[in-house]
Design brief:
Blueprint: E1 2-4, H1 12-22, E2 27-28, H2 36-49, E3 56-58, H3 67-83, E4 92-96, H4 102-114, E5 118-122, H5 132-140, E6 144-148, E7 156-158, H6 161-169
């Protein structure tokens, strides 16, 4: 099940609805501008009622230095934990590979606020700045779970450290 917790960005709900159709996933949303934590709560209740094993909540993108948005994210996590004490099982931060070294500060703040369990590094197909992945894992000890190499369904791939290093430096082994 996909939950459209990004109620801020224009078109975010519809974009996630399209992905739910493509992936044959159930979908939960409210209206644009709705309280994000309320949507998360509704999505958890719907997943429980329908015996759904995996619920992915898509939150709004945010900069780590926007206090009100970080507070909103902390509220979403509190609501999740109050409703389902063992959850969330994964808290993933999506980092754009073109962000560069600012991604390190961003990930550190997110980790401190909500406790990250993994990273997804996107846009590795179009940048030479993918080296940020090395800094993130070394400095924050947060594993990279997935990488994005395009916008298609098959373009979100499991992260392979060996394939990553070979893509950057050539075949070393």
């Amino acid at each position: 099940m996909l939950g459209a917790v990004d109620t801020f960005r224009a078109g975010a709900i519809e974009q996630l609805r399209i992905w739910s159709e493509k992936t044959h996933s159930e979908f939960v949303s409210q209206h644009e501008g709705a309280d994000a934590a309320s949507v998360a709560f509704d999505a958890i209740d719907a997943a429980k009622a329908r015996s759904i094993d995996i619920l992915m909540l898509d939150t709004a993108g945010r900069l780590h230095n926007k206090v009100n948005l970080m507070n909103e994210l902390e509220k979403i996590v509190r609501v999740i934990r109050r409703n389902t004490p063992h959850a969330p099982d994964e808290v993933l931060l999506v980092i754009d590979a073109t962000t560069g070294q600012n991604a390190l500060k961003q990930a550190a703040v997110f980790n401190e606020s909500i406790g990250l369990t993994g990273l997804i590094i996107t846009k590795l197909d179009g940048t030479a700045k993918g080296g940020i992945a090395l800094s993130l894992t070394k400095n924050l000890n947060i594993p990279i779970r997935k990488i994005g190499v395009g916008e298609g369904m098959a373009d979100l791939q499991d992260f392979s450290p060996i394939a990553y290093v070979e893509a950057m430096f050539g075949n070393l082994f």
